[in-house]
């Protein structure tokens, strides 16, 4: 099991008081109070139903935040793209190529990367498209075509991992995007498809699902860490490598779990359990889950957690 420095890249800080805006999962030693503290989600939170997407679909991709998200690809409308402004979905310019079960990287709805996917007649697609807030542009392909994998990072510093390639099966491939090209790097420890993942950059990410396995990426290697409580495939995920949220999937299809950098904990269930939807969000306290197979394909739900500082006895 990695220690705090291995996960965060820095030691626990000594601070005279508390930091002004601690992030979820942050640990510090308050030298004034003589106590160890950390920032955590302390309550289960809740999911609230929001306005539907205009074109219901499944097997699509998404990204951004819970108030500024992007939905693209999927079936039955494999090129359609919709933008979420926190209240409504609006149709915007389409992708260049129809595909389903593609992957995404992007933390805002004005800058997104869509890659891979299943394309009729070419089920091992390697195509990559970049969204600039107005249009999609084809850029350099993945080194290996695949679908049903996951992505993390941004449209200039992305990461793609896992998935399925016909004739090969489940893959553990990992590729890094530098804004121009994809480069093959060290593989996941466990080859799997129908996974979820998230991360702020291509040097810090988390891969979960496709079972119970959970792995952390530090920019060089994947490390196995504590598993999900409920194994799932075809679910959604969002957040960061130290503050992630997993939701939906094949079974149980309404369960939600929150990751604090060390462990997964069950939080509030979705109102409508479903799989094959897409998600958005940058922390585990807020998320948006939209689309999906069952029911209905146009549904959107927004998660809001309760965040507070918890004090830990340092003795």
Task: Outline the structure in words.
This protein has one domain (45-304): Kelch-type beta propeller (Neuraminidase), CATH 2.120.10. The strands form seven sheets. A six-stranded mixed beta sheet has the order 1-2-3-28-27-26, with no helix packed on it. Strands 4-5-6-7 form a four-stranded antiparallel beta sheet, with no helix packed on it. It has one helix at 4-8, and strands spanning 13-15, 27-30, 35-50, 61-64, 69-72, 81-84, 89-92, 103-108, 111-115, 128-131, 136-139, 150-153, 158-161, 164-165, 169-170, 174-177, 182-185, 195-201, 204-209, 214-217, 222-224, 236-239, 244-247, 256-259, 264-267, 278-283, 286-290, 300-312. It is an all-beta fold and 315 residues long.
Provide a quick synopsis of the model:
The chain has 315 residues and is mainly β. The chain has one helix and 28 strands.
Characteristic key phrases:
28 strands; single chain; 4-stranded antiparallel beta sheet; Neuraminidase; 6-stranded mixed beta sheet; globular
Topology summary:
Layout lengths: L3 H5 L4 E3 L11 E4 L4 E16 L10 E4 L4 E4 L8 E4 L4 E4 L10 E6 L2 E5 L12 E4 L4 E4 L10 E4 L4 E4 L2 E2 L3 E2 L3 E4 L4 E4 L9 E7 L2 E6 L4 E4 L4 E3 L11 E4 L4 E4 L8 E4 L4 E4 L10 E6 L2 E5 L9 E13 L3
Parallel strand pairs: 1-2
Antiparallel strand pairs: 2-3, 3-28, 4-5, 5-6, 6-7, 8-9, 9-10, 10-11, 12-13, 13-16, 14-15, 16-17, 18-19, 19-20, 20-21, 22-23, 23-24, 24-25, 26-27, 27-28
